[in-house]
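hiii so um. not sure if this is the right channel but i have a protein structure encoded as tokens and i wanna go backwards to a sequence. like what aa goes where. can anyone help
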């Protein structure tokens, strides 16, 4: 397991992690990111907008009111290692000081593992069938939702 005392920042996924697809913000999302901010973690949000509607995705995030908790918000066509690396460096950390929380093991968790971040895979939800594999590696933590991050950190 990773050394949680070294974690200084957390990179969150949007859809399926803090925002329920086609429904809205999970009821606990604002409380969780607010508490993490109070605990002095720097927070980032990385979201894919595969349809290219970056403004629409950014508006969706801002309309929830949760954006005020994030030091960095990145929206792009897809999640890439370069985007994560740029985001982490932009926060002023090295990957070993960062946790990645995502509901898709084969995307965000894979990238986080490749960079050396601590990873939290949300194993419930509409993407739970995308299991960790040889390419993604095993996540450091398997959780049911982001509320468990508070218990672990």
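sure thing!! here u go:
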């Amino acid at each position: 397991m990773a050394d949680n005392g070294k974690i200084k920042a957390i990179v969150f996924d949007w859809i399926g992690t803090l925002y329920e697809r086609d429904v809205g913000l999970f009821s606990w999302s604002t409380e969780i990111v607010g508490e993490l901010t109070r605990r002095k973690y720097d927070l980032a949000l990385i979201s894919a907008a595969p349809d290219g509607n970056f403004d629409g995705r950014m508006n969706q995030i801002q309309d929830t009111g949760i954006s005020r908790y994030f030091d960095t918000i990145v929206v792009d066509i897809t999640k890439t290692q370069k985007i994560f690396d740029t985001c982490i460096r932009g926060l002023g950390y090295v990957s070993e000081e960062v946790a990645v929380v995502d509901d898709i093991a084969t995307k965000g968790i894979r990238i986080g593992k490749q960079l050396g971040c601590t990873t939290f895979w949300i194993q419930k939800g509409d993407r739970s069938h995308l299991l960790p594999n040889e390419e993604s590696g095993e996540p450091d933590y398997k959780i049911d939702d982001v509320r468990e991050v508070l218990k672990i950190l």
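oh and Helices lie at 29-38, 54-63, 81-91, 105-115, 147-152.
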